[in-house]
Input
Amino acid sequence: MSPHKRIRQSKRPVRHAIQTITVITLCIVMFVAGWKFRDYAIHWSNRMHAAPSQYAVQHSNPAKQTEIKLNTTLSTETVDVFGGSMAHGWLDPHSDSYVRRAFSARSMSTDTNYKYVDHTIVGETPVMMQESGKFQLWLKKDRPQIVVLAWGLLNSIASKHKTTVTQFGDAIRDEIADALAVHAVVLIVTPPVVQASATVEHEKQEVFIKKLFSVADSFNNKNVVILDVYHQMEAYMQAHHQTYHMYYGNSWHPNQAGHELAGTLLENDLVLKFGLGPIRFRS
Output
């Protein structure tokens, strides 16, 4: 064998070793690079899911953002609310009554925005409002989808107004009929528990509530819905070993905690009666 051939044969194992090491090195580099790419992809995927709004501001065009906002436009329903000082929100720091709280919460949790129109008048009764003609005028002006009759009852019970149960029932009947005539859903909402209704005026208020319910039921109409906050709040307090003292604003009005509890009960009632959709008049 020639010297040159022996030299070539002696170099062959070295070449094979170098090639093998090179292949292994490349495999390791590709493996590490693959994991780094995976980590990079996961990092950006997490960023996009964790903070989509930030990513959208940096990388999407304004036209698409405007289009998304237009697609999430809420439907709107007008709510006319009638009652006295309790429904007006007296003794809540911001006059945020239990009725207002319930519809505000519903606007936040559903795809419907409720335009809350406050027609409550301090010291008013259903009889006084019917005699003044303001109820019909406001319905004609607002054309509401929902009418809330949230009379506190104590004004009607008070001797200075001299309202009989029959007069009270007649006024409520007229209000319901007027609201149905403009194709509004009528919500009959009883008031929160206060000192007077829990003590000295309890029996009289029960008589007025019974009349309120009987008039509402007499229409036999699915668009007339009773939401009995008073008795639910009474049951809640009994179940939790509470009295009206926790919710005392004065003898006729709840404090903020009372409005909050009554508002939550009313909000729950609305969900049970109407689900999370709009409150619609049923033909």
